[in-house]
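Entry type: protein chain
Record version: 2
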Amino acid sequence: MMSFEEFAENVVKEIRAKVGGAFQIKEHNVIKNNNVKRAGIAVMKNEEDIGPCVYLDAFYREYESDGMKFDEIVDEVYRLILKHEDDDALEFDISGFKRWETVRENVHAKLINAEQNEELLEKIPHRIFMDLAVVYYVVARDHAQEDIGTILIHNGHMEMWGQEEENLYREAMINMRTDGEADLTDIRTIVERITGISFTKEGDGASRDTGMYILTNRRNRFGAAQILDTKTLRMIADKVGDGFIVLPSSVHETIVLTPNDEEEYRRLADMVREVNDTQVDIEERLSYHVYAYSKDEEALQIVA
């Protein structure tokens, strides 16, 4: 049986033979969030240096378990590549991406775990925020200005643009507010929205507020970064009270709780760990810590 390296090399060789000169086919190895390493095939039109990627990890697991024969895998990868022939990702304007004045309005911030991403952080601009790292991405848009994906900003991009990390942070914060207010929604409202079931009887005067909220952005994409915005934190404190708790649900959202007794912090940290380990995909895990907000300091701090 082939090793993964031999498998990937042979798949690339076979795919190159199948596509002829229609596409450029290159091996593409990336470090994803939380040190998840993935290998794949980058598909690019001639004279372009960006395009979609077909990852091979899952295919290799099929090969190992005899779920798919090697030739079947090559055929399926080839089918996916043909599917991408008219993909919007291949219509991304790379010339615009090379110009800072064009790309700056599409720069956004996201939060990742600092300790789990030490290797990745060596390659990308970032700043430390508690046990997290603020990193940056560009929203890629097609010629119709529709979102087609995101591109993580690397040190090489900074050199190309002639920019420093401080400029990325400033633009990301401006764009965060330009996109609109943070989305802070009571958990009961979210459950009712999903299930279509109302938990409040008609005429019931009791408050619908559960004291538990989901904080994200309007796109529900890397919405945990909303905790970087001091304006958002002040808004939450005004609504739920000083000392509110933030639980890192995922890179896309956080859970906000009304102030708790300090004796509860450890129990909450244990809950975060259990949920992370059993319910959250490894690439979306943010942190195992619990944070609390101080209105006097206008900042979050780790409390457990």
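Comment: Residues 114 and 133 are 5 Å apart (CA to CA).
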